[in-house]
Amino acid sequence: MLDILLAEDEADLREILKERLSAEGYCVQGAGDGRAAAEHLARQAFDVVICDVRLPGIDGLTLLRTIRSNWPATEVIMMTASIDVAQAVLALKDGACDYLTKPFDLDELMLRVRRISETVTLRRQLQGARGELAAGRGFDPTLVGESPVINRLRERVAMVSRSDVSILITGASGTGKEVVARLIHAGGARRDQPFVAVNCGALTESLIEAELFGYERGAFTGADKRRDGRFKAAHGGTLLLDEVAELPLSAQTRLLRVAQEGTVEPLGANTLVKVDVRIISATHRNLAAMVKAGTFREDLYYRLNVIEMPLPSLSERAGDLTLLLRHFMQKFTPAGAPLPTISAAAWNAIASYAFPGNVRELAHAVEHAMVLAGDREVELVHLPSALAGAGLDLGTAAGGPLTVVRPLRLALHDFELAYLQRALVIFEGRRSRAADALGISRKTLWQKLRHAPSDGDPPSISAAIASQL
User: In this predicted model, what pLDDT tens digit does every residue of 44-75 receive, in sequence order?
Assistant: First the structure.
């Protein structure tokens, strides 16, 4: 239900309106003059303000401009006498959503408030949906692994979460920079306030300042209404500037001012807006080298880089691969379904691959394989082609979980099966072409692919992997 502030100096009318609005189920606060209304606004956020144009203390138009500047999500309905219609039109230009000319029908006011209620409800639903998408599938706010570098990273996250200093997270693409930023936010005093992420590399130079700092209506072509920027949206919480190295120098200059003074100036405005935001930046680039090259401001670099947190690549996280594999398999397995097993060839391909895309690439590979495998064992043929190419060598990675000695017959079977599956990958599943290249018939290829060791054979490498998972 809506929270409504009713600013009206006529006591009788104020009580009538308050009683009717309350009967509709709205939470209503009354104010007899502009100063009292401003005090209410300072103490509480309102969805709607119903305000007379002529108020003692602070007039209605001044109060409207204050609301638009400080509480842009609050809708304002102005009430005016018939002789003040010109002022009502001015109020609409200043951002009021509607106006009523006294005397007016109470049902008309209720209708307009109900329309606002529907709009507010839709807006909240949209914000909720955007939040779910932002934190939805493909994002896990956890650090998976027990390697020394990950344990040290956990300790550092816990340490920096206690402060409000600016953090610079560095590391190759796919190492989990946003995951770490969210963990820092979740572990600090701002955890219940907004976390807003903006990818600086995904916006054009002409749009980045409008996106970060907001703009007023008419600030540029196409700006048909004012919009808060990401800094205002993150007020009280944390703003992640992902790929901060992609900011143009003009935006870097304005960002420095925000970081130093805690104020933003929307495009087209001549007033500063106070914001309280913790800034976390992330980049895969070498900012220090960019400073030397003159493409990144040195003063901004030191302002953002109070504490640097470098993230390790997946290749530096010895021992974490099995834990990450289990984590993503659990994530992509439907609820109630058993965790699938992995063939020896598929595991070897995963263990042998360098993963230039790091943890993000591993997550993609697991999802890709599980979709193609369905409810069957994950085989080499189910992996993305880049990983499948790493499965030609069936030796287990040093230190991996599958250092075992197996009967030669079974080892040869696994080698043959992996070789055939690799041929299918190369020929994109076309068995006739794969059989021709292998020098065997299509029927022989089919028989070899479906052949399995007898029940009396030792457990397969797939079962060994499953036990590790």
Answer: 888 899 998 888 988 888 888 888 888 888 88
Domain 3-131 in CATH 3.40.50.2300? The answer is yes
Domain spans, the chain: 3-131, 148-312, 321-468
- Same-fold call for 3-131 versus 148-312: yes
**Per-residue pLDDT tens for 207-244?**
788 888 887 776 666 666 777 888 988 999 999 999 99
Count the Cβ atoms, other than its own, within 10 Å of residue 323. 17
- At the topology level of CATH, where does 148-312 sit? Rossmann fold (3.40.50)
pTM of this structure? 0.57
pLDDT band at 174 (very low <50, low <70, confident <90, very high): very high
Strands 307-310 and 167-170 come out as: parallel
